[in-house]
Amino acid sequence: MTGLIAALVEAWSELRIHKTRVLLALIGVALSVAALTTVVGLGNMSREAMVQTQEQQGGRAATVTAEVFPASGEVDVPQVRKALEGLVERYGVEHSSLRYQTSVPFQFPDGASTAETMVVDRGYGTMRRVDLSLGHWFTRSDEQRLAPAVIVNEAFHQRLGLPDLQQNPAVQIVRERPITATVVGVVPNQWPEAPPQAMMLAGHYDAWALGGEAMMPPAMEMWVPKEIAEPLATAMSSDLAAQFGPGSAQVFRSDYAAFGDPFESIQLAVGGIAGLVLLLGAVGLLNISMVTVRYRVREVGIRRSFGATGGRIFFGVMLESVVATFVAGVVGVMLAVAVVKSPWVQDLIAAGVSELPPFPLEAALIGLGAATVVGALAGLIPAVVAVRVKVIDAIRY
Amino acid sequence: MTAPATSRTPAAQHPEPPLVALERVERTVLIPDHEPLRILQGVDLEIRIGDHLSIVGRSGSGKSTLLNILGLLDVPTGGAMSFGGVPVRSMSEKRRAVTRGARVGFIFQQFNLLPGRTALENVMTPLLYARGKQFWQRERLATEMLGLVGLGDRLREKPHKLSGGEQQRIAIARALVRSPQLILADEPTGALDIETGQSVMKLLDDVARESGAALVTITHDPNVAALAHRHYSLQNGVLVDGELTA
Fold it and tell me: Which residues of B touch A17 (CB under 8 A)?
């Protein structure tokens, strides 16, 4: 134990004595580690940001979507919805949502017009990572409302005159006897010139018998464990075919990872770049360490005359390198976190992402681990050279 | 004319075994395409606790090689040697290093202080290889030792700011800080002027006597050699006793 502490004390003392050299070596290593950690961190965060965007568009991995297209071409919406809801119940799917695009006439201050309305279940918000710019996603208490709750897009909100959501703004659904709906949330427009659009809970849609014109047949999205997605889709497909006839239903994975992870190549590229950065850092450090150990041959000889064993000299030189690179690694990781978490970089890699991904811990650990490994590797050769120093010659050096 | 060294005292006179015992020690170096170079030939020597020996000899006579062998930095190629009663041949390199650190103190002609370290850090360095109390109390021990050699007020000075005499005092403090039983001084005054050399040698002699350690001094200087109780001369690798001429 004393030996280990003594070796650490000695390594730290050496670093303190050789401040300039150490600083020079550390700058290189710290920059390498910062570059490595930044590349890995940015890569992971970009991936996370892209995954989030993909999940907003197609659901989380694995999302199985069931659709029915009867051979007759006539879609009996209530029948299809019943069949889809039956699938959820029979297969015990925990996370599911109806997705049914219809059109509903709304009364705007400047006149009545229909708006594309997506009929969904409450789970849709989580499954599709719905990002709200105002208000909130449908809650359990929204389901109990005595008036339908709607979430509208910014174009809809603007056409309403940008009412304050705190005031529970109302919008009328045009009927013989108009129905007053409450706007509970606002989502960003899907594209710059998007028309007014709305989302409504399936329960409310049914309760007030809104029955607008179907723009697309109803579909059921189900978020299930990846490993059961394929067999589940096959079973559900057969199930629906039995009800609607062969070829009239399709059940498929609709999430971004349906055909394998599309970000694998990005990760491989990031890994390759990171490895190259690390190699450059290691070569630089090895170079400095080799020069240093040759400069310190006499010192090694003197230490041997004090009773330093070969093992202690080897361990000391290695430890000195490892301690130095570990400290450099900490600095490099801090630098990388500062770069990656800067608002400018965050805007660049995670624009439009609802949940800003945190700095990946694995990037920090890889940075620190790489720094330590580089220190050990770069210290290995000089340590062997130091051990092989001939004491008698070294003292006279 | 000289006679081979016969300083091995009868056992009856010294019940304690010698600290170092050399018997017919040889040191030969193999040189490619040449006859082996015999640096030391048939060296007999016993060193006991409290001894003060001087070894004189011309350059190339094998003085430093003998000193390195006595300090376990080198090993004989022939004959027998024991350190603390243990045959050196049976000691591993690690055991020799540990024994050297604990029982031998070196003082070099060129001081060999570690650059960039203060006087205190230099004296503390050997204690980094010690265990227990010596390691944990290294700063106190080094401070005390520097006080003993008259440098108590220069603890934080770096060697390059000190005179040659002061640097050699640091080297003496460093050699003695682990309380060695054997002090090996290789031309300890070689880099100093006469006056400073004499004061350094007096200090070394005093400190060695007070600590009870054996002191072996290699020197060209008859005045330095004269301070020893036993005198040897190395001539072409052969150790002879009783001579004060280099």
Answer: 116-117, 121
